[in-house]
Amino acid sequence: MSKGALLERIDVALANERLRRAVRKATDNFKNGKTRAMQEYEDWEGMRERARAIRAHTIQHLDYYLAQLAAKVRQNGGHVHFASSAEQAVEIVRNIARHYGVKSVAKSKSMISEEIHLNQALEADGIQVYETDLGEYIIQLAGETPSHIVGPALHKTREEIAELFSKLEGKPLSTDTPTLTAVARRQLRQIFLTADMGITGCNFAVAETGSVTLVTNEGNGRMVTSLPRIQVTLMGMERIVPRLEDLDLLLTMLTRSATGQKSTSYVTVVSGPRKPGEKDGPEAFHLVIVDNQRSTLLGGEFEEALNCIRCGACLNVCPVYRQIGGHAYGWVYSGPIGAVLTPLYKGIEEWGEVALASSLCGACYETCPVKIPLHDMLIGIRRKSASAKQTHPVERLIFRGFGWMMERPGLYRMAQRAGRWLAKPLVRNGRFRHAPPPLSYWTKTRELPAPAAKSFGEIWQSGFAEEKEPLLAVAVERRQSKGTRSTGERGA
Amino acid sequence: MKVSLFVTCLVDTFYPQVGVSAVRLLRRLGVEVDFPAGQTCCGQPAYNSGYADDARRAAVQLIRAFSDSEWIVSPSGSCAAMIRHYYPELFKGHPLEEQARRLAEKTYELSQFIVDVLGIEDLGGRFDGIATYHTSCHMTRGLGVREAPFKLLSNLRGLELVDLPFAEECCGFGGTFAVKMAGLSTAMADTKLDNVAKTGARYLVGADMACLMHLGGRLEKRGMQVKVMHLAELLEVATRPQSKHGEADLEEASAS
After folding, report:
1. Rounded CA separation A234/A435 (Å)
2. Is the residue at A403 inside a domain?
3. Which of A230, A249, A418, A446 has the fewest CB atoms in 10 Å of its CB?
């Protein structure tokens, strides 16, 4: 993946009608679900604010809560590992697998394992890795990466899934849900029963109890944390809440914002390995806490991006995501949150351009259950790109000239007249017929009007300033009734 | 009462009739309008592209131009949002911080000014036709003005206002986004226009000429028979003395 590839990826997505239909349909479902769920609360705004406050407090005291979490996990009999980079995190998991002689792994959904490319590394060690979240299972079969934080395979149509499963079963299958889920169930059951190690992600770790919380709809999280003899949980260092009771609000915000569900079908809270006398649970529990650039956001203008609870709501409302899906963003996190995190985690030089994949409409901020100002952060990333001189030199020159001209009204008026004159040979019937780049990017798909024969400023000066209009009846009434409160207008 | 018109660089250069309509409308409401000659651009193109310093230079000029104005009214939700929402931020720690904040407080989008400041929701006008309204993102989410245009439009006699499906979804203009990500921007316009077509509306009305330039340019290319109108234009026609209330007036307006 290289700089400049964003436009190519977007073009590929735009050309794929099937993908676009699937993405739009799935995000509509998620989005409508959230709208319904929100309406059940009178004070959703207040809940957003409280959720934001919990997240902000946690991130501001992250060192404290991480230390508390680590101490609690160890007290519960688990092991805690800190990984500063993706490479370190992968090494830690490989070593754990080697130590316990692991041959096969059952995984529940984990975005961070995608972020650090864990599967490939384990497979290279000769370990079989099976995704057990249905969406992840589908894209693993397809050899793809997740295209949505919550619905990793939402870009796939039912027909495509039936095709994949037919290949797996060696016979043609119908596209109905019971048939397809029955296949997945049979295949996955075997995996749960034979895997030596379970690997999970982490929706929230609870500092005061040393627990890990997983939300799933298929129960695979519960299988992965109870059947294999070893459990490894991967978490980004920011996935933490101080107290068990904080889950009440945050899980509510997470599931309602993600899919509109009151709660997911399963909420699994795991607090360490099997204790003496207990009949089930893993023999050993390892928590791997991954930094991988997250700490660079602490204390800076993008710190609030760490407040994200990975509900995916910003993807579902994003008019850009809804056109192109997740893969065009180029990395594991997509949509508005991905367009912010990718340049911050992977480097502004190569990835700054991802922040351009936004019209800055603000729908992301409006829907975010923890009120991350994503639209402003996207401008912030662009600012970073511009000041690091990662933008095109011509663009920098244009905006330099823009600022210089706009602070000189005389020059602005002159440029307006010059532009009108220069446009003349390019214009026919009031529309641009030819246009040089970058205007041609506009005119290729959209008509562009010629500059008006007279600007508003010129119209104003040529007599319009003095024109009068007859008063409307409503204005006459207003004048008559106003007399007594003529000074009170500003407060209106 | 006297207001200063911030016409915006786009309307000034490409759509002066929108400025003319806004002024006529305000005058009919008994508001005296002036047009400070020093105004240029709010700086939004530079700001949104990451060039805050260049944006600030444009903003400084706007602050200067409107320093004596009591009220500033603009026929653009987006430019008004830029001033109201981002100027205080842009000038944090700058010698003009206080003036930027004051400018922000006294700047209004046209329909917001009519409804919230003048307290008028029914202009007593008439416009015969079927219209749908495009809610622009910066006006609704940035400026927080959602109701004002609907109040003014729905009180017009003769006008059938049809709800636009997925009204809250961005049209894909997005400033330089429209050029830098032209394919994506056009795809978003098409989604919007497909929804416009579903309404059966003859007029597509909005309060941001930038969105309308983008949507209008696309629908012309697609050969759609929908007329794009700025809210100010429609309200001006609807409140015109001896108006024929509709198409005939528009023809007249464009001929003049």
Report:
1. 53
2. no
3. A418
Contact B49 A468 (CB under 8 A): no
Task: Please tell me which of the candidates A385, A445, A474 has its beta carbon nearest to residue B186.
Answer: A445
**In this structure, what CATH number is given to the domain that contains residue A263?**
3.40.50.10420
Q: How many domains does chain A have?
A: 3
> What is the pTM assigned to this prediction?
0.95
Asked if residue A300 lies in contact with residue B150, where contact means CB atoms within 8 angstroms, the answer is no
A237 shares a domain with A194? yes
A292 & A332 share domain: no
Q: Which domain holds residue A26?
A: 1-40+312-391
Query: Do A153 and A238 belong together in one domain?
Result: yes
Return the residue in A324, A387, A445, A466 with the most chain B beta carbons within 10 A, the one to mutate for interface testing: A445
Question: Which residues of chain B fall below pLDDT 50?
Answer: 254-256
Contacts of B45 in chain A (CB under 8 A): 399, 402
pLDDT given at position B245: 56
**How much is the ipTM here?**
0.95
A409 contacts B37? CB cut-off 8 A = yes
Query: Per residue in A78-129, pLDDT tens?
Result: 999 999 999 999 999 999 999 999 999 999 999 999 999 999 999 999 999 9
pLDDT at residue A302 is higher than 70: yes
Q: Determine, for residues A359 and B123 on separate chains, whether the beta-carbon distance falls below 8 Å.
A: no
d(CA A326, CA A262): 26
**Is the pLDDT assigned to residue A450 strictly greater than 90?**
yes
As to burial, measured by CB atoms within 10 angstroms (0-12 exposed, 13-18 middle, 19+ buried), residue B44 is buried
Helix runs in A241-392, H state only? 246-258, 313-317, 321-324, 335-346, 348-351, 363-367, 374-387
Q: Which residues of B touch A469 (CB under 8 A)?
A: 24, 27-28
Q: What would the pLDDT profile of A163-210 be if each residue is shown by its tens digit? A: 999 999 999 999 999 999 999 999 999 999 999 999 999 999 999 999
CATH number of B122-251: 3.40.50.1860
Shared domain for A110 and A180, answered yes or no, is yes
Average pLDDT of chain A to the nearest whole number: 95
Smallest Cβ distance to B28: which of A396, A470, A479? A470
Cα dihedral B145, B148, B150, B152, rounded to 10, equals -160
